[in-house]
Amino acid sequence: MAPELLAADESAASPASDAFALGVVLWEMMAGRRAWRGMGPLQVVHTVALKRRCLPVSDRWPEGIQASMCELVRGCLAGDPGKRPTAEGILLRVQVELAQHEERATGAAAA
User: Fold this and answer.
1) Residue 49 carries which DSSP code?
2) Dist CA 48 CA 44 (whole Å)
3) CB distance 3 to 52 below 8 Å
4) What three-state secondary structure class fits 39?
5) Measured between alpha carbons, how far is 2 from 20 in angstroms, rounded to an integer?
6) pTM of the complete model
7) Which residue among 2, 73, 99, 104 is the one 20 to 30 A from 39 at the CA level?
8) How far apart are the first and last CA of the chain?
9) CB within 8 A of 43, min separation 6: which ones?
């Protein structure tokens, strides 16, 4: 859940909150584990809302994960909702990433 939603202000829900949620899902996929593993729900709320901590995004994800995807996850997890990418921006970055992946795969197959 996005930090701004933990303030119990339902009006804070926005497309930026959705981008944050996507960032958490992508983080879990790339890290291979649940976010905030070992913490209970209240501990997560305390850590995110009060301590203002976010999930660490490593520059060294599993092999094959491009730096641009790390940047996308960092952007989605930004504490300031105004700094998170829009849905359109996320889609564009994923499309570029997929095209680059296809180029690398085609180049490797031809070699």
Assistant:
1) I
2) 6
3) yes
4) coil
5) 6
6) 0.85
7) 73
8) 45
9) 36
